[in-house]
Amino acid sequence: MPDDCVVFESPLMQRLLQSRDLFVTKQAHSSHVHYAMSQIKRARGQNKWVNNPQPETCPTEEDFCWLIPFNKQENLFPLRPIPIEKCGIDLAECHCAAVEQLGHAYSLYHYGKSARGVFRGGLIVCESIPKEDERTKCVGMLIYNRAEHERAVRDHAHYWEWRRHRNDARWQSQERGERDYDAKNMMHTFRLLLSGENILRNGRPLVRFEGEQLLFLLDIKNGRFAYDDLIRMADDRFAQFAALLETSPLPDTADAERIDTLLHEMTMEWEERQDRTTGCRSHCSLLP
């Protein structure tokens, strides 16, 4: 906290700040880098959302169905799956049966308007097909990629959840094609990386920035870098972080024994202050 932001600081807080080195370790590398990486991934995902908006309608099971036709058709490669929408087949007019040894493949039979449909309640339902129908009504092998359909449904839900809660003003420049990333979020990611580097070098985070670092962050916020260039710069920062970790003077982990001693000493000092203030002996559950 910068000094000009502090209104009041108790003697105990001063004691704690004087011992800040006990709490700063190389573990700052993990917390900063992992969070920054998650933000970079988020920026990649949101960048994809901005440039590839999802339709309002949710993906259907039929969007992830393919057919290998039973009968040879002219100009078709053998055993080449065809998207069901291009086959002229309505799955609501069909039944299907499981194919042995193939988890997502089904024999498909066309029954017309009398059929109950392949999908019911979002699930594919297999039927027992009479032997006499196996040759006369079979139109091919149906392939349903259930895993991809479920992933697409999740992506669709995440996209529209983001659309409902996003700050539209921050994304207008992206949707107009002027910028292809969330500049404010990317600026904060680099601010986090710069602060983490300072921790590894000097044992303290950077709260305020100045000089070239401040200009660099403002340039990111103002969208003066291409998205791909920022991703490359972030990857370079991650590599520098790893190198700093090897040369940092910080301890690997905190000294729990010294911190425990500090806790006891500060607790005793707090109790003594309470005694002087109230005139009676206080008890603290932190002490054994």
List keywords for this structure.
alpha+beta, 5-stranded antiparallel β-sheet, 288 residues
Description:
By secondary structure, the protein is α+β, with helices and mostly antiparallel strands. It contains nine helices and seven strands, in the order H-H-E-E-E-E-E-E-H-E-H-H-H-H-H-H. It is elongated.
Computed CA radius of gyration, to the nearest angstrom: 31 Å
Total beta strand runs: 7
The low-confidence runs, each spanning 5 or more residues with pLDDT under 50, are 174-178
The span between the termini is 33 Å
Side-by-side strand order of the widest sheet: 2-1-7-4-3
Question: What is this structure's SSE topology?
Answer:
Layout lengths: L10 H8 L8 H25 L13 E5 L12 E2 L10 E6 L2 E9 L8 E2 L2 E2 L6 H6 L1 E7 L1 H20 L2 H8 L7 H20 L8 H11 L5 H21 L8 H23 L10
Antiparallel strand pairs: 1-2, 1-7, 3-4, 4-7, 5-6
Summarize the structure.
This protein is of the alpha+beta class. It is 49% helix and 11% strand. The protein has helices at 11-18, 27-51, 131-136, 146-165, 168-175, 183-202, 211-221, 227-247, 256-278, and strands at residues 65-69, 82-83, 94-99, 102-110, 119-120, 123-124, 138-144.
